[in-house]
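If you are new to this repository, start here. Below is one unmodified record pulled from the training split, so you can see the exact layout before writing a loader.
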Amino acid sequence: MRTQFKQMLATGNVFIWGCAAGVSLSLLMVFGLLLLIMINGLGYFWISDIVDLTLKDGQHVMGQLAGREVIPRSITPDRPEGKSRVRVKIGNRDLSGLDFKWVNDDQIVSQDYPADVVLLERREWGNMYARIQAVYSGEKLLAEGNEAGWTALGPLISSADNLHRQIKQIEQFEIGAINADIERLRLKIRADEMEHPASSVSSEMKAQVADTETRYREKTAELETLRARFDEYSVVMVDANGREKRIAVGQIVRALRPNEMGAWQKSWIYLVNVWAALSTEPREANTEGGIFPAIFGTVMMVIIMSLAVVPFGVLAALYLREYARQGVMVRLVRIAVNNLAGVPSIVFGVFGLGFFIYAIGGTLDTLFFPERLPTPTFGTGGILWASLTLALLTVPVVIVSTEEGLAAVPREFREGSLALGATKLETMLKVVIPSALPGILTGLILAMARAAGEVAPLMLTGVVKLAPALPLDGSWPFFHFDRKFMHLGFHIYDVGFQSPNVEAAKPMVYITTLVLITVVILLNLTAIVLRNHLRKKYAGSVL
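And here is the target side for that same chain:
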């Protein structure tokens, strides 16, 4: 028996099967995690039916079913251990103070799915599940009763939505541009005062200031008119227990009757919800709405980081591999580069805070933006400093991968190029680097994928919970590298651990996680496609 065991070990089959089992188990764990995230994330967008539960005490619980469980160990009499209960998303947070409620099965007398119940998706306070009692224009009654109110409510929501877009257009772009002009004039006046303390403001400057203030007052008056129209209509809703709530129509994003909707209608709403999550701004402390600013900030940060890390990483690798005399010093540099790859990311964040923000940013403010002080411009966190910090974090990956790609280029390629009369620089640019591009680009994409998921350095160098403006917009100079930004990784941390409403925030955590994983997977797939394409293009090299 011992001889057979030794023979089996000698063949190596045990280790082969052990490695295969380990890889299979790892893949199962990864796919299981992805499946869990997809179910909890993508399931959030589906509009399920609204149930009305009648309890033994005569009260009603109305909402969307959100899960079932067997009651775990408990010492409270209202939660008997071992019995099952259902979780209902009751909404109506402004009435009940809760988003979800657990109901024991033995307390339910009956359940119904009334067709006339309305789901109101609101800009604040979450969803509302109720029936329409009346619709008003100011204090004037427009429609009374659930059916008449439902008929009147749809056009009013559409009109209010158009007004909301107009208000945002004026606030963010038109008034925003005027505020930018006012700030520019203020800084110009202050710069003149600092340069010529005794001089007074010129008449031309006064005329510009007066013109800007006039435009601001006109836009403010227009905005007040639109807001008055926006708040003109209201609807009175009645929940399952008879409690009334008056809601401004302008606060309603959408009104639905899920119990009347078929599968095709729900599928269309599902696609609309997915697109809204990817293309709109967050609301309700980031627990509802979309994540577009976080997606945009993540992608722009990775692009800036890539533009910064490629030149330094590739040039450093070229020098170490092709130009530096191999010896103790070069070996020490390689060891240092490899060690940098293992430094905790928060250390890079502290370095970025001290070096980029306080040292370089503070110096730039003193030299080029003295009129803005003491308010810092580049002496505070921003997307530029966050990107450069992540460039430092990922440059070891690019250096190592570039060196490996350069080492894989056969020596005959270099010698043949030099023998044909090319200079060493021409050989590097036209022979060696193109042949090593698969390794270089693979390292770059892997660095981009790592940077997309980093959070700790960003918390010190420019990421915020909610950014008032994107780093890229239509106002000069278009790219605002000093602005703070949102990031998918930090959004997950903020919503999952800093949200005041944890239960309502869970779906958004899964959604953001799924989007972040998708971005990382796409970056890795891009690396594989580029590598395979370049391998075919430079098939003569051994890569």
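Two things worth knowing about this chain: The first strand starts at residue 51 and ends at 55. The radius of gyration is 31 Å.
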